[in-house]
Amino acid sequence: MKKLLILGAGTAGTMMANHLRPKLRSNEWDVTIVDQYKTHYYQPGFLFLPFDTYTESQVKKVGKKLIHKKVNYIQKKIEKIIPNENKVQLEDETINYDVLIIATGSKIAPQETQGLLGPLWKKDIFDFYTYEGALALRNKLRDWKGGKLVVHITEMPIKCPVAPLEFAFLADSYFRKKGMRDKVDITYVTPLSGAFTKPTCSTALAYLLKEKDIHLEPDFSIMEVDNNQKAIVDYEEREIPFDLLVTVPTNMGDELIERSGLGDDLNFIPTDHNTLQSKAHENIFVIGDATDVPASKAGSVAHFQAETLTDNILLYIDGYKLKKEFDGHANCFIETGNNKALLIDFNYKTEPVHGTFPFAKIGPLRLLKESVFNHWGKLAFRWIYWNMLLKGIAIPFVSRNMSFKGKVFDIKSK
């Protein structure tokens, strides 16, 4: 019996297990997934927890229940990958593999910034990229009386690059509804030269920041957090004071990758951008946030990757050439507050543009334009995630590669 092993039961790992188990002969292939944690989190929901839009129960489920029943589920800590021996060492056993899929994701690393884990951590400094951080921030916001709110990105790449912008927009809406927006000064601080990584999208989002009276501080490369002065300081000694700092710390791949000697400086694994095969080991494939591919680290990207990677693993097993198919496709809703959202659709080479999605002229979703429809699309995604995406069911009318139907590439026409 041959063995296909998946490391990580988050979004990407769960999808791969559910995609591949029905496609591999049960009398030939044993499929196993390993993760040390019992709970599977709907991570896009962490954005909504601080504003009491979602409850805890809406963003978590027992991970094992989401995996195909004919997949072996092992809940243990992964100590090390030994690629030259096709083995993975767990906390109390070693298992072999013929094909390995690494889907161990990325995590925040606040210890990488001087002073971030100082006395103000979880008192006046919070993250919302973890379940615990989002809940702690929710409790803080419920009683906060106002002041200088700084929303900050430490460095790129980060998981879901639009999430910090969404947080700033939702904070504006949240404080307006509470009747205290005049008591809150919101500043958005980024290491980028604009509001976002893509120029056209950056222009549209910078306009929204200005419209909502959110000050933009670009090109800020943080050196330290000064806990005594309650300020973040960059390498040019520029200081930005805060009363409440909501930060996205450095994102890094799992420490397992460093222990195994498979990653770069941030523990992301060098991966073929189009086939998702490891550059160092042909029987190892990488998906989701664990890769170093220059695509967004977002759930939608993992979803599109999973469809290509499923095909490629089946091709690899049968000895055929892999498809160089994955194009970096990302499709992301951006909450802008007041029950509206933007939608962006892009890939490695094509930045977000205006138009309609998924159908030309019909839509009903509009690209790079605020609409209530887009907001409801964002909220509906939670149902799609639990009931379709994780199960490996294709989302109707949404292709794995970026479609150019409905896109308007002449920005002047809009």
TrEMBL record:
Organism: Aureibaculum algae
InterPro entries in alphabetical order: FAD/NAD-bd_sf (IPR036188), FAD/NAD-binding_dom (IPR023753), SQRD (IPR052541)
Lineage: Bacteria, Pseudomonadati, Bacteroidota, Flavobacteriia, Flavobacteriales
Transmembrane segments: none
Superkingdom of source: Bacteria
Gene3D superfamilies: FAD/NAD(P)-binding domain
GO molecular function annotation: oxidoreductase activity
The protein's name in its UniProt record: NAD(P)/FAD-dependent oxidoreductase
Residues covered by the FAD/NAD(P)-binding domain: 3-295
